[in-house]
Give the backbone structure.
Amino acid sequence: MLKTKDILDEKDKRLRNISKEVEFPLTKKDKELIDTMIKYLHDSQIEELSEKYDLRPGMGMSAIQLGVAKRYFVVVNEITEEDSDKQEFETYILINPKMISNSMEQIYVTDGEGCLSVNRPVEGIVPRYARVTFEAYDMEGRKIHIRAREDLAICFQHELDHLNGILFTDHIDPKNPYKGKDQMRGI
């Protein structure tokens, strides 16, 4: 079982590597890693499992965060209705992803963006597009298009940055961490 301590910390230079395109068919090792990432993200969002296994909650994870410099990431997004007592999730697997369009509107996470590889509080805002369209491949090598908005769009952009060796902290101006806040919408 994947543990929080297995995820590379921001000090690890491997996180700065630009990940390589994936060839199809996927290797057995890649398929297993994708399943492991999904299980971690799913379990980390269920409070009792998160506490039991000491998992830091997360919504997305890129292969590079586990030391594998390949262009894929997974996102597990909770879609539970407010009046439901059963948690439900959508799972996204994006292989060789590209952002092919984006809105002009920019947004930011009001409580601050987080990352499973950044184990410290970070002050500031990260400008992200409010709506994006991604082109990628599924596990069978079929081309897919995904439109995402709000928190899902932020997560996709965050994970794509990982594949390019970029951390969310790189987007924050150290001299003015809230720069441009009045020109964006907080979510």
User: Anything to note?
Assistant: The helical segments are 28-44, 47-53, 150-163. The two ends are 33 Å apart (CA to CA). The chain is about 20% helix and 25% strand.
